[in-house]
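Reminder: ligand-aware prediction takes two inputs, not one.
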Amino acid sequence: MTRDDLDVDPDELYGRLKAYEGRTAASGGAGRDPVNEPMIRHWCEAMGDTNPAYPAVAPPTMLQAWTMGGLAGHPGGPGGSARSEAYDELLALLDDAGCTSVVATDCEQEYLRPLRPGDLVTFDAVIESVSPRKTTKLGTGYFVTTRMNVRAGDRGGGGDRDGNGGGELVGTHRFRILKYAPARPKKAAKPEPTRKPEPAADRPRRPRPVINRDNAGFWEGVARHQLLIQRCLDCATPRFPWLPGCGACGSQRWEAFEASGAGTVFSYVVMHHPPFPAFDPPYAVALVELAEGVRMVSDITGVPYDKVRIGMPVELEFLRVDEELELPVFRGAQA
Ligand code: ZN
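Here is what comes back for the chain with zinc ion:
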């Protein structure tokens, strides 16, 4: 491969990519449901948005919600949104050039008029721009920006001069991805990739905690093998993680006290993907509820990842991770 890990002439490729600017990325999209009060209420509840203007109008940031096809996506054919051949070709061109990975980088919305219950939403998308070749920490590739045009009318249909959707333009949703060739690891790949890696000396260390003035007391406790929780001196509410003020009453007066070390698994996830170099998947990450009532995220030791269960009693212990790092973790009691 040539410089930048891409084995194509950059100018020639960029010229071919630029030719897709302005072409259709998707067409004929239609919202599954008209803009409606129940969806607005659920959104506001999830966001904690109590603005009294809703649900008479929809929050502007719901723009994309009205275009979504649900977990199964939009069905093909009439009424569904079809990704265009041009967009597929553009992505295939990038794949062929070695830019096989993709990451969404940002989105930008513009609101032209509020959506109201009863509005029928239609949408289409255009390939707005393809950036020159960029090298990022992830790798070398191209930013592709598509712009979704969201329209609304009380009947949908109609259609504009380009045959796209119908109704009045109410907002735009720009969505940017980076299609890239992943940066090579600095070191040569290990010859036997299927074997589970040993915890070798050269493997990345677990992330370090960020210790600051607000939580230094907690880490001083860990160094003494004490799990310290804060308690508000005004309303006696315990809190964790360490914070300068009380979430219940706002008081900044507090004391620290030592947790008994008893707890139960309140919830957990098993991490399979994405892999982090310092950890060997699969592993369980638990939210432990301490006897004192606060919860903390922790490793569960002593129990295989697939035997961790909600409600499992756990007991505090201190895990020596490496010469610098010691962590409070919880040992599970096997049933
Ligand atoms: Zn308080």
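Confidence is low (pLDDT under 50) at residues 156-165, 188-197. The CA atoms of residues 37 and 45 lie 12 Å apart. We will return to this case in the review session.
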